[in-house]
Amino acid sequence: MVVEIDHVRFAWITGQRDTLDITRMEIAAGERVFVEGPSGSGKSTLFSMLGGVVCPREGTVRVLGTDISRMPAGKRDRFCADHIGFVFQMFNLVPYLSLIDNVVLPCRFSLRRFERARTRSRSPEAKAHRLLARLGLEPTELHGGRTVAELSIGQQQRVAIARGLIGAPELILADEPTSALDEGTRERFLEVLSESSMRSGRLPAWPCSTSHCWSASQSSPASSACICRSPCLDLRTGGSFRR
Ligand SMILES: Nc1ncnc2c1ncn2[C@@H]1O[C@H](COP(=O)(O)OP(=O)(O)OP(=O)(O)O)[C@@H](O)[C@H]1O
Ligand SMILES: [Mg+2]
Fold first, then answer.
1. pLDDT for residue 1 is more than 70
2. Which of 57, 146, 204, 223 is deepest in the core (most CB within 10 A)?
3. 184 phi/psi in degrees, rounded to 5
4. Residue nearest to atom 25 of ligand 1 (CA)
C-alpha cells in the first residue's frame, strides 16, 4: 500500500471539533484517487496530513509502509521530501526565485529526487525545462529572468505542478491541481503525469481534489477503501480512474 490511514482524528485547535475522523483509508500503488468534498470539508487538511505537514492526534498514517505520524519532525521532513510530490492548492511558490529554481527545489532537499531527475535528463534543471515545456510554458516564459511572481495564475499553477512531479516521487498529492488551467493544459497535465509514471515503471497514487477537476465524471467505481466519519464533511474517495 502507498497510503494506509487507520483510525485517524485530527483537530486544528485542541478541544475543538475534529476536522478529520477517518476510520480507514487505503490507496494502492498505481491508483489515482480523487478526494471529493465541499469547501471547508477537510480535503487540504487531509493532504497536509498525508504530506507530513500536520500529524493526527490519534491513529496512524502510513506512507509506503512507514508510519509518518510517529516520526521525529526532521526525519519526517526528509522522508516526505524523498517520496512525496506536493502540488499545493495555493501553489506556495518562492516569489523571488526563477521558474526553473522553483521547479528544482525538491531536488535541493532530496538527493534521491535529485539523482532521479539527473538520471532521466542531463540535470534537474534540464528536467525542469522539459516538464514546463510539456505543460505548455514556452521558452519565452522560461527564460529572460522572469520570477514566478510575474506569471499569470495558470502559469504559476503549471510551475507548481512541475515541482510536484520532478524526481518521480512515489506519491503525488495534487490539491486542486487544475483549478486555474484551461482545458488543453489540463489534458497536458494528465498526459505528463501518465508519461512520467510509465517511464518510472510504477504509477504514483494521485489523490486530488475534484471540486474543480474536469476528470471527476470519468471516474470508474471506487476501488480504494475509505471509511470516513468526519463530522462536517462529506469526504470520500471518488475511485481510481483511467483515461
Ligand atoms: N491552518 C489552519 N488553522 C486552523 N484551521 C484551519 C487551518 N486550515 C484549515 N482550517 C480549517 O479546517 C477546515 C477544513 O479546511 P480545508 O482547507 O482542509 O478545507 P477544503 O476541503 O480543502 O476546502 P476548499 O475546497 O475550500 O479548499 C476548515 O473549517 C478550515 O477553517
Ligand atoms: Mg482545499
1. yes
2. 204
3. -60, -40
4. 39
